[in-house]
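> call design_seq(struct)
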């Protein structure tokens, strides 16, 4: 399939971007730039913020030309009474969501081509073949949307490589020097319902110590209050982002966490941004899911084990037994 369409200006609409979202969306961003190398690409977060404007800005340098955050697009039917974005015009608008209100509002932005999966592509200038079914994976949904837009085949990446600042590798080696087997543990997530109980992470950490491994807790700024409790229960645990004040110094950069991940033999995480960072870092990953759907948010890990609460009695994270996760760690490391 080929296309002669060469837009000079492109607008991409998303609701918002957290770190985990941004990593899953990065193949789409890269593919969009490859498909339209000369276009000015504007990334529009209509309902909230986008980490492409902050933490992940260095990663998308040269890929995205402009990021607009908190644009208040898709929040109220009153928006249909005006032209969004002060009447700006784009050669191509890509609506990545399937929400009726947002799609109709976006359609009012002046454009030449409009691509949207809403209503089985009813508003879209370009449509998929008859009988098309939406993939379960969010990442594949976006790549399919890019294929429909560009007319070019886009493969699903098995892993995601990032060019990290070499200085970060030196920092990671300093705080996590060679010798112990480091097992990463990330107890945080975007909300408490997505979190396996902290006491379970502590029990798992103690089991790692008994097995001769060193638990490494990756705590973000929202989890700092947990450090004292963990440290008291597991004195052997390490907290590299809190060592030397690295987290604050580097503004809890995802790139630093990814560099630290490369020092780990394995990691355990909730469905979270840190879990996706572990995956990008290339370590073996045990990913814990409760209410969220693993088929939609599967991390891009080379070696991945998914543990679902539904397999143990319910959708809440506390249904996942500690011994199940501990056994998964032992099995994964037996082949290391």
């Amino acid at each position: 399939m080929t296309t002669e369409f060469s837009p000079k200006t492109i607008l991409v609409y998303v609701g918002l971007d957290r770190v985990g979202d941004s990593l899953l969306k990065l193949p789409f961003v890269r593919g969009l730039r490859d498909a339209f190398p000369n276009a000015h690409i504007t990334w529009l977060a209509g309902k909230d913020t986008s980490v492409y404007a902050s933490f992940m800005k260095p990663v998308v340098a040269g890929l995205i030309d402009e990021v607009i955050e908190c644009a208040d697009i898709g929040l109220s039917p009153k928006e249909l009474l005006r032209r969004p974005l002060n009447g700006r015009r784009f050669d191509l608008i890509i609506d990545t969501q399937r929400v009726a209100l947002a799609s109709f509002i976006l359609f009012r932005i002046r454009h030449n081509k409009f691509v949207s999966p809403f209503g089985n592509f009813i508003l879209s200038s370009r449509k998929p073949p008859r009988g098309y079914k939406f993939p379960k994976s969010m990442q594949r949904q976006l790549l399919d949307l890019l294929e429909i837009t560009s007319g070019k085949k886009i493969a699903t990446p098995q892993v995601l490589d990032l060019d990290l600042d070499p200085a970060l590798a030196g920092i990671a080696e300093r705080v996590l020097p060679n010798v112990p087997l480091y097992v990463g543990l990330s107890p945080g997530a975007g909300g408490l319902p997505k979190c396996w109980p902290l006491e379970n992470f502590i029990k798992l950490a103690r089991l790692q110590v008994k097995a001769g491994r060193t638990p490494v807790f990756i705590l973000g700024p929202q989890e700092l209050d947990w450090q004292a409790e963990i440290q008291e229960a597991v004195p052997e645990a390490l907290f590299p982002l809190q060592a030397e004040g690295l987290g604050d110094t580097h503004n809890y950069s995802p790139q630093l966490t990814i560099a630290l991940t490369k020092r780990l033999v394995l990691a355990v995480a909730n469905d979270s941004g840190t879990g996706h960072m572990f995956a990008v870092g290339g370590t073996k990953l045990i990913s814990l899911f409760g209410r969220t759907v693993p088929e939609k948010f599967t991390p891009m890990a080379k070696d991945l084990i998914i543990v679902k609460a539904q397999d143990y009695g319910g959708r809440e994270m506390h249904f996942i037994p500690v011994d199940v996760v501990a056994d998964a760690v032992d099995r994964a490391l037996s082949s290391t």
